[in-house]
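Data availability (excerpt). The following record was deposited with the supplementary files.
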Amino acid sequence: MSITLGVLSDSYRRQLRRLKDQPVIDVVVEKVAAVARATDIGPIGIDFGVGALPSTDKIYLSELKTKFADLNMVPTVIIGTLGLHADQDFAGPPIEASIRNLEVANYLGSPLGLFYFSYGGRVKREGRIRIAVEQIGRLAEAARQFDMTVTTENYDFFTSDDFLHIFEQVGADNVGLHNDTGNWLILDENPLTATRKMADWTYHAHVRDYRIVDGVCSSVPIGMGDVDFPSVLAELRKAAGRRDRFVMAVEMDMDVGDAAAEDEAVLECARYMKKWLDTQG
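Predicted structure:
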């Protein structure tokens, strides 16, 4: 077992939305490197999407891979978003793009291809589950040529029971979850209970805390919200014992605040996780 602490690029989303000329990945690399220096975390994970790259040309990817190695960074790559839509004009292009992006993720050294879902097209729950099973099956089969596992995140629609059903129906051994610890609250699930339930299927974690106010899950630094982190982290540690590599990437998703506030919040999360990991031996 090897636990690596990291940072999800979307933690800086308020700043990244305002970028004009600078590639997203360049900003994220700078910020994650700063977190590593401030906390003495190393190696440090860096989670980002293929869409953050200015190019997927092999020369550029080779240079980026060298930069990761020089900075002692462990990349985990988001390959895309699958459209759970009955109309193939909408559902087809996203999965084709995600399959293509597996090669990019593999080249950069990511053993996982992270993906998400979008919804639309008058499809009921059972239809979304059926389409998800079909699309994940295609993605998992394509990932086998790279010896990769594909994982999705709990967010806003599918429950832990839904995921168990979907993964079992796919029937592939390279499919699973990247557990977002806070997002279970959006689904009205207990993060500890859901984390335990999904342990056998968990390959990665986005470690995030929320404080629920007036029906809104507001992102706060780890340990300041409604997630029982000592218990949840203990369960994630057990899940990590099933994997050769397990990254716990911190995540913030602030609704307000400037760049300095966003940077400090991410740093607070990293400090919390570094202190926790140091106590694990």
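Summary of structural features: The mean pLDDT is 97.
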